[in-house]
Write a structure and sequence with these properties.
Length: 695
């Protein structure tokens, strides 16, 4: 094995969206010190606890480095060439016998955290002719993309809060102190919020739980899960009724203002206050403050997206920013100009309306992907087009998608499962072949996605710290070998694509030029970019798309429906990022975090004591957990973190298995969707809870 030279290395952490700059000291082939890089122009020395997990990933004895084949309930290492041959042969045979549409793919969240996978997987999936594509997008941020395509002409034209220059940061269903920003790459969020308040600005947060972020907010409001869109509509009602609506600089580009005015007229604060659980006077006061504070920005994240009205939420947030003159303005919602610009050469006026629907439920695709809530049924339901083979890439959908237990069962019936993943986890334990790529400090990397979400235009090339062992392969090499066996012509490597994109991009740079700035290059603060960056067919912004207006009828039906007795929401924690970080000892220290949080009033009415074992039931399943009584929870709402459930047989994750917890997605219901976007409604799941007898 070759060791890294003793030296001080600089690179960005690629474990979450914050992409904090790191300085890493290596001695005798091991990391002896890892800390935030104070000279990184984006993170400025910030680093959350997840950064230290890079050491655990590097040294993890459970991480696979050789190709593996499952033989019954056992695994054996096999030569890479043999593994490639088996995978290509089996997939090719299934496509020939049953058609290419009987093969599906699933890409997990880590796919976008490694440029080798991000830029290499597509060629392989095209060679395989996979059209049944699924990913973590539809259990996460799909409403953001649907909104961006409808209003601005492209799914990646996402407005980003200019948090460093705003004076009022209004957030729905977000916990930036735990996430370090999400669909907002803003490392060191605590310091950024502190700076906001130091310059006289304010941070206002809406969430059913009084989170870590609520503790530092100037004002925090607990609202019922799924009521965010109602609060936004009521705020818009006030803004229009008070004559405070103005498109400002972009006004001449706007269409649909009167249609929005007419739509929000039906939602005065007094009408929705009880349903949302917030005082009507607070809504009116906050709406006026948002419209009259300059600059201001509205933003919503997981709680506002992974619910039944996620699409409406993201549309209404954009409208709030637009009609108050805060879109594409300094301190408002802005559009980064990244050095590797994924929008370079994008066509105007592309039609993103669905072209295909799923076989069983007829759910529409978006941008080439089906809602992952349909994956289990598409595998399990017999008939023409039934999925018979699955390729998973850096994903664990058994723990990440609705009714994971049903998907777990469905995977057992596949003819073939190929996993490109460094671990035997709850999903890949079903694989026939596992091809583990090198990860973390072993890879060269450029953050092609997260610079599109960054609060500053920066760029950083990341050379590997450690060379890989002889038996290892990089992700792009795996995709290249599989593609070649499927008859595809060689394609450009990820590095070649990055080099070309950097040279053609707005800052005309290169990998070598970025290497000369090991702490990263700073191209400056965000600047207004509309109408030049708009990609709508007519170069205008229709703020009242017909699909969004039509979906208000579904919201009306929900207003009339009874309020569930108890609903479940997820939660994010600083040392937790989905299921793939639970095998890092540094992140799993301390008290068990997979607990069910309950408001004291709910605990009393259900007869549940703090620390009691409880059973939680939903329409699709049951789990057992430990109750923690916490008045941070809104009455009628319980909370369980995402990504746990490591108790399943055959999982080869020693640390995670010692902290198995329970999977929230054994309770979430695949029939609960945001009908507008296809995103899974993971939050607001109706549940029942009872204390278990001590055995």
């Amino acid at each position: 094995m070759t060791h890294a030279a003793d030296a001080l290395y600089y690179r960005a952490c690629n474990l979450c969206e914050a992409i904090c700059g790191l300085q890493i000291r290596v001695e005798d082939g091991r990391v002896v010190d890892l800390r935030g890089d104070p000279e990184d122009p984006l993170s400025r020395g910030a680093m959350c606890p997840k950064g230290s997990a890079l050491i655990d990933l590097q040294d993890d004895p459970d991480r696979l480095k050789s190709a593996m084949r499952r033989v019954g309930s056992h695994w054996e290492a096999i030569p890479w060439e043999e593994a490639f041959d088996i995978a290509a042969e089996r997939l090719g045979a299934i496509a020939e016998a049953f058609g290419p549409d009987t093969i599906a793919s699933y890409q997990g969240n880590p796919s976008v955290h490694n440029s080798g996978t991000l830029l290499g997987a597509g060629g392989f999936l095209r060679a395989l002719r996979v059209r049944n594509r699924f990913s973590a997008t539809s259990v996460d941020q799909l409403p953001h993309h649907v909104m961006a395509a409808a209003l601005f002409g492209h799914p990646m034209l996402l407005p980003i809060p200019d948090i460093d220059r705003t004076m009022l940061f209004l957030a729905f269903g977000a916990n930036p102190l735990a996430s370090q920003g999400s669909i907002i790459t803003a490392p060191g969020m605590r310091e950024r919020l502190r700076s906001l308040r130091a310059r006289g600005g304010r941070f206002v947060l809406f969430d059913p739980r009084r989170t870590e972020s609520a503790e530092v907010a100037d004002e925090g409001y607990r609202i019922r899960p799924g009521s965010d869109a109602l609060v936004m509509l009521a705020m818009l009602h006030v803004i229009f009724a008070r004559g405070l609506a103005s498109g400002a600089r972009l006004g001449a580009l706007l269409d649909g203002l009167e249609r929005v005015r007419a739509a929000v007229a039906a939602y005065p604060p007094q009408r929705i206050a009880d349903r949302a659980g917030i005082d009507a006077g607070d809504i009116e006061r906050l709406a006026i403050a948002f419209a009259t504070t300059k600059p201001a920005v509205a933003y919503g994240r997981m709680g506002a997206s992974t619910q039944e009205f996620g699409g409406l939420c993201q549309w209404l947030l954009a409208v709030l920013n637009i009609v108050t003159g805060n879109l594409d303005e300094i301190g408002g919602a802005m559009f980064p100009l990244p050095a590797f610009d994924l929008l370079l050469g994008a066509k105007r006026g592309v039609d993103f309306s669905p072209q295909r629907r799923t076989r069983v439920r007829g759910l529409p695709e978006f941008n080439g992907e089906f809602p992952v809530a349909a994956l289990a049924e598409e595998i399990a339901a017999p008939g023409e087009g039934q999925i018979r083979a699955l390729v998973t890439i850096a994903g664990n959908p058994v723990l990440s998608t609705p009714n994971g237990a049903a998907l777990d069962r469905a995977l057992e019936g596949l003819d073939f499962l190929l996993a490109i993943d460094p671990y035997i986890n709850e999903t890949t334990r079903h694989a026939d072949i596992v091809l583990p790529p090198a990860i973390g400090l072993e890879t060269e990397h450029y953050d092609a996605i997260f610079h599109h979400f960054a609060v500053r235009n920066t760029a950083r090339w990341n050379d590997p710290v450690f060379p890989i062992d002889a038996e290892q392969r990089f992700d792009w090499q795996i995709f290249e070998e599989l593609s070649r066996r499927l008859g595809a012509a060689p394609s450009a490597s990820p590095r070649e694509r990055i080099e070309r994109a950097l040279g053609a991009g707005p800052w005309k740079t290169s990998i070598d030029a970025l290497r000369e700035s090991p702490h990263g290059r700073d191209f400056g603060a965000l600047t207004p970019s509309f109408p030049q960056r708009l990609l709508t067919a007519d170069g205008r912004i229709d703020i009242a798309p017909s699909a969004m207006l039509a979906d208000l009828a579904r919201l009306e039906s929900a207003i009339a429906a009874p309020i569930p007795d108890l609903v479940l929401i997820g939660r994010r924690e600083l040392r937790n990022n989905n299921s793939w970080m639970h095998n890092a000892p540094r992140l799993m220290r301390g008290p068990e975090r997979c607990t069910l949080l309950l408001n004291p009033r709910d605990a009393e009415r259900f007869g549940i004591a703090d620390g009691a074992a409880v059973e939680v039931r939903s329409a699709v399943g049951r789990i057992e957990s430990v109750a923690r009584i916490d008045d941070a929870m809104m009455p009628g709402v319980a909370s369980l973190p995402h990504g746990f459930g490591h108790h399943r047989t055959g999982v080869r994750l020693r640390v995670a298995s010692a902290h198995p917890g329970a999977s929230i997605n054994d309770l979430t219901d695949p029939s609960r969707l945001d009908a507008l976007t296809g995103n899974a409604a993971l939050n607001g799941t109706p549940i029942e809870v009872r204390a278990l007898e001590v055995r």
